[in-house]
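Bit of a strange request maybe. I'm writing a small parser for structure token strings and I need a real example to test against, not something I typed by hand. Could someone generate the tokens for this chain?
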Amino acid sequence: MTEVQAMVEFSVELNKFYNVDLFQRGFYQIRASMKIPPRIPHRVEASLLHATGMTLAFPASVHDALVCSKTFQILYKNEEVVLNDVMIFKVKMLLDERKIEETLEEINFQLSLDLHFTDGDYSADDLNALQLISSRTLKLHYSLYRGLHHHVNVMFDYFHLSVVSVTVHASLVALHQPLISFPRPVKNTWLNRTAPAQSKDSAIPTLESVVFGVNYTKQLSPDGCSFLIAESFLHHAYHFHYTLCATLLLAFKGLHSYFITVTEEIPSCQKLELAKASMQVLYERLLRRAQPRAQNDTHVEEMDVDARLTELCEEVKCCNA
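Reply from user aminoacidic:
Good idea to test on real output. This should exercise your parser:
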């Protein structure tokens, strides 16, 4: 089995916080984290997009894979606080190259949103200064063809009646040979079956073993000046290259289609024009051709993706001819 390193990037934006009927005045904060089933070897990296809006009481911060929103003060009932915190979660995973699409659609991505509170002194450096009072978990259903684009109002429990509006986007952004080691769960034997779960970092495979298959071994040519590659290993390499290119192009196609839909629905603005320019650069870099002006022509888009996939496969075969 050949494994590849995939990265799905999640953009989580906390838009506004609404105090419906919180019992206590004080400082509040929302903490977000991404959870992945342990059976999938993975690592999660978290970061914040450039801060926008007011700092409120304390700015947003990142602590390993945990992202804390701006800390804000609630004094009155029905109070509304603008957060505008954009959190980025990069989920890097090891996947079987034969089941990339299937695995991505089956993975149970979970976004945890925890509401923390204190009515005393607070220091931004001390995470324990705020206590957890309510928690909500969003199950995110990612699709390779559509990505993930959703807006939802998350209500905390009845005793801490408040709502935060959340916008989530996700797309597959990278697919390549493993470049880092991943923790793998270690199965307990019957002698230590009650022991706590343990993990062990996986070894990083060589590029040759990933491209040509785990059974590939280097074989010198008779003149000793080059290496011979058997037809079966070449076939594996071609199929591996095709799978990676096709998967990434499908992910891009879904992202591009959603973007075109958005541009048709919302009025033009400065941010949208900047996004259009970025999407055009990505389009032309991936497809190696100018972006068509008729954005609503979906047939043109399908032809471009298929043609680019054929070009990529032919280029690889020509290099090995």
